[in-house]
Amino acid sequence: xxxxxxxxxxxxxxxxxxxxxxxxxxxxxxxxxxxxxxxxxxxxxxxxxxxxxxxxxxxxxxxxxxxxxxxxxxxxxxxxxxxxxxxxxxxxxxxxxxxxxxxxxxxxxxxxxxxxxxxxxxxxxxxxxxxxxxxxxxxxxxxxxxxxxxxxxxxxxxxxxxxxxxxxxxxxxxxxxxxxxxxxxxxxxxxxxxxxxxxxxxxxxxxxxxxxxxxxxxxxxxxxxxxxxxxxxxxxxxxxxxxxxxxxxxxxxxxxxxxxxxxxxxxxxxxxxxxxxxxxxxxxxxxxxxxxxxxxxxxxxxxxxxxxxxxxxxxxxxxxxxxxxxxxxxxxxxxxxxxxxxxxxxxxxxxxxxxxxxxxxxxxxxxxxxxxxxxxxxxxxxxxxxxxxxxxxxxxxxxxxxxxxxxxxxxxxxxxxxxxxxxxxxxxxxxxxxxxxxxxxxxxxxxxxxxxxxxxxxxxxxxxxxxxxxxxxxxxxxxxxxxxxxxxxxxxxxxxxxxxxxxxxxxxxxxxxxxxxxxxxxxxxxxxxxxxxxxxxxxxxxxxxxxxxxxxxxxxxxxxxxxxxxxxxxxxxxxxxxxxxxxxxxxxxxxxxxxxxxxxxxxxxxxxxxxxxxxxxxxxxxxxxxxxxxxxxxxxxxxxxxxxxxxxxxxxxxxxxxxxxxxxxxxxxxxxxxxxxxxxxxxxxxxxxxxxxxxxxxxxxxxxxxxxxxxxxxxx
Length: 716
Prior knowledge:
The chain is an alpha/beta fold. It is built from 28 helices and 28 strands.
């Protein structure tokens, strides 16, 4: 007899759960007997499905939910133990019990060898033995299924990338996955049964206080709330004391009836993410070069300090600092050295203030300091003087000693500004006042400073357009041979014909040009214009008229300086010996070794070289010998002291002798009186320059002077 599909045999009540017993037997009488035996005891009744063909049995196994198979080897569509192989392939995990005749017992044993659970000879398959063997198979199958499910769950939990910890209702640990073991420092075997607070030690990341037991918090909450609770600001203290930030989520575990049986905690390491977030925040609020607070963070702290000072009736002060002549460092030694110097200055500023104060870099060479909770206004002045001394001490950068000074402006609250913007603006204005008064000093804001500061800003704005508008002009002052009275050359001196303020002298705009980066193009214009005028004088019949041009640090250190000088000589046709470049000691000594190289290249072109303002810098006699200069110009401050101070006589006399010993021309600057001239002539100074001979004049008058000479003013 055949069956188109599985038949459900009575009884249907089962003690084995959802899985049924599949009976594959062709003989109806034998099938009925087996079905009857499996259902003969009320408390041990099984759900049994019966099919008569192997193909139908295999199809049913593919559908699943079969806990055990009772298989009769004597089937109509298959014979022998070989049929078992196809059955085993259909459900390799389902236990199979073989039923055989006495004369086919050998085939039954072979089936067991191939993978069957066991076999029974039909004559011996009484109800008790049959039920016991089926029950054993079902139990084993169920246990294997649970074990497989558990293994799969564990494999899944170990691979999800989060730490998982489970507890029972009392909050004792029942499970840890591999990540949880690593993060807590507890092995699973040691942690099982322990209170979760022992294994998962949490503290608040901000306060450092212990965090209440997260599992207890969830357990004691509203039982109707089945959702998840997150704790995001926690730090986990590992068993060995190492701390790192985590985020954790606690969820209640329900059984099939909906009752809470425990909780599961999922947590992950977020210390790297938190550190990255903090670093991003730090970078956004700090200067990259010095690591000092930037403008945004400073303004925030200043506003908070003003609010606190207002509540407590205290004072505070703001100091605005700008390094003096810092651009010369960048231009002469390069930005890498300049950056190191800025870091050195930042360190000294930090050492000058209290921990409650704030030092900020606004950008470039500008710093601003918040002095919080100042008891007396004079305290801010004391801090300013302390800063001046600290910054002025030599800075050792790349094994070189660098000197830098700072100008400081200050403002106070509440006597000065009432808000952050006003305080900073007032301190800025006071800083420019300090620069106008000679630099390397400090000034505190007064109401009259704002107008001068505004005037200075307007002048800077006009200066940016002056070159393009052709507002600059050159005047020329002669250099005179003190023995013959003949003019030996002309020094080109720039003037600014301001459309509203009239003629402005270099002292009024050159420092501004240096600070705002305009000195290099202005200097290039002066060089070209002076050489053009020298050529024009020569073409007019005056012969060779040597011209001297001052060179700034920015020009001298520029990469294209040498090629620029060469291009001007070619463009104007001036012979190189008729061009003299004047450089100050400070420019040459900022990087003496590099200066020697550049000076030698200039000498190779044939131009003349002079050290201007000699005696005001810090050049050594060794470098004076190495510098290939032709002239030293004694600064006018020393010449002025000739008739006023006996020491001035000694110094100028020594300078003249130094120049002679080095076979260099000596030019005395600032000669204004006959007595000064007499002294210079007695000490055999070669040349002089100053108002005694002539003020700087326009090119036409300078040509007339060169043509006529100054013999009557010199020789007597």
